[in-house]
Amino acid sequence: MLQIRKAEDRGHADHGWLQSHHSFSFADYHDPAHMGWGKLRVLNDDLIAVGGGFGMHGHRDMEIVTYVTAGLLGHRDSLGNGTDIAPGDVQRMSAGRGVRHSEFNHAPDQATHLLQIWIEPRREGIEPGYEQRHFPASEKRGRLRLTASPDGAAGSLTIHADAAIHAGLFDGAESARLALDPTRKAYVHVVRGRLVVNGHLLQAGDAALLAAEEHLALGEGDAAEVLVFDLAP
User: Fold this and answer.
1) What whole-number distance in Å separates Cα of residue 150 and Cα of residue 90?
2) What distance in Å separates the CA atoms of residue 92 and residue 193, rounded to the nearest whole number?
3) How far lies 56's CA from each of 74, 76, 77, 103, in Å?
């Protein structure tokens, strides 16, 4: 089964300093047909204006992954971490039994574009934690680079959830295939550009939801950047 979700069908919130598109129900956007996919509960496509950001706020019992594509995102949290997240960086914050953090656009002259991803953890009440790593474009060019996994395989971030996240860049004749476990789910989100996913053309912001599928085929990209999620059902 493969279902296409078009970018324009997502929820949208205009806060002035923030333009946010919600792939799944979030905050004031509620759609009973789109409450998540497997253990993936939130995928927000955010554009933060210069000087804008989220003040200190709390989370618990969620694995939160931040993927920045443009600009610079400043992160501060109650664990004492303070860093900037740049394009190519991926950050994992395990909220566990409770953590507070803030996120602000630290780019002086451009909007910051990021994807914020929430995945349900394997268990609740764990020790809060944080990890950040840079994945250069060369490692994603024409292939799917593992960026997060339960065991930190291949230099990926360690995520405390039954999920894995791959990132890839595809243009022209570049292509990749990924074997899927048909008992699990997969989610493909096109961050930018255009990409053919199992024979379907997807544009920026579009997604493919897969279940009971045995493979994923990506190709015919046009300046495409993509995230692929392998998820417990």
Assistant:
1) 15
2) 25
3) 12, 8, 8, 8
- Cα–Cα distance, 73 to 12 (Å, whole number): 21
Strand 82-85, strand 53-59: pairing: unpaired
Rounded to an integer, what distance in angstroms lies between the CA atom of residue 107 and that of residue 103? 12
Residues 6+ apart with CB under 8 A from 105: 48, 49, 50, 51, 52, 53, 71, 72, 73, 74, 111, 112
**What is the rounded distance in angstroms from the CA atom of residue 39 to the CA atom of residue 154?**
22
d(CA 21, CA 37): 16
Between CA 125 and CA 127 the distance in angstroms is: 7
Amino acid identity, position 177: R
Q: Are 147 and 166 spatial neighbours (Cβ–Cβ below 8 Å)?
A: yes
Q: Mean pLDDT, to the nearest integer, of 142-170?
A: 98
Name 200's bridge partners: 197
**For position 120, what pLDDT does the model report?**
98
Average pLDDT over residues 193-216: 98
User: Which two three-digit tokens encode residue 61?
Assistant: 């019992």
3-state secondary structure at position 17: coil
pTM over 0.90: yes
| N-to-C CA span, the chain | 14
Contacts for 89 with CB less than 8 Å, ≥ 6 apart: 68, 132, 133, 134, 135
